[in-house]
Specification:
By secondary structure, this protein is α+β, with helices and mostly antiparallel strands. The protein is built from 8 helices and 5 strands, in the order αααββααααββαβ. A hairpin with a 5-residue loop joins β1 and β2 (69-77).
């Protein structure tokens, strides 16, 4: 076992030394496969913690240097101890930057009022009504268009500005795995002049 690889994997993923060592052993020394193993393990951890209540947290403020865009984000966790953690503060800051840059309207698709989703569906249905395509195909097209729309209007579905290969939902799960507590974006407000 190469200790340099274990350290590099730990620095890259934030996982514990033991988890990194075990992942490298399971991957038989393959660094990329070990990263994937840790990512999957992080998803499982995040899924288990999802139902836990988030009563602590912090409010992060960001004002863009031109003074014309400002963001307040309410990020929640389970304990005050984690709310003071530098990793948690880093996440809150990154999310505030994301909101400032990408102007989402909602936290997630769950926060979109049903009547707005229905209007969006109706608009796409009227667009496709004369297409002579089977109803099943039309429904698939509409679902695809809704998913694309969610990426525009929902923070959790947007590509992360610091790594376009990840969406915010995945970034949250990654931090949940690193920190070991449930984390939720409660709400945000974006101001622009």
């Amino acid at each position: 076992m190469d200790l340099k690889q274990v350290k590099e994997l730990r620095d890259l993923t934030g996982a514990s030394i033991m988890d990194c060592r075990n992942a490298l052993e399971e991957a038989k020394g393959n660094f990329e496969k070990a990263q994937e193993i840790l990512k999957q393990k992080g998803q499982v951890i995040a899924d288990k913690k999802e139902s836990r209540e988030t009563k602590a947290g912090l409010i992060e403020a960001y004002v863009h240097m031109n003074g014309k865009v400002g963001v307040l984000i309410d990020l929640r966790c389970e304990t005050d101890f984690v709310a003071k953690n530098p990793l948690f503060k880093e996440l809150a800051h990154d999310l505030a930057l994301q909101v400032a840059a990408m102007s989402p309207i909602y936290v997630s698709p769950d926060n979109i009022p049903e009547e707005i989703i229905n209007k969006e569906k109706e608009a796409h249905q009227s667009e496709l009504k004369d297409s002579n395509k089977p109803e099943k195909i039309i429904n698939q097209i509409i679902e695809g268009k809704l998913q694309k729309w969610y990426q525009e209007v929902c923070l959790t579905k947007q590509p992360f500005i610091k790594n376009q290969d990840q969406i915010i939902e995945d970034v949250l799960k990654e931090y949940i795995a690193k920190i070991g507590e449930n984390i939720k974006i409660n709400r945000f407000v974006r101001f622009e002049i």
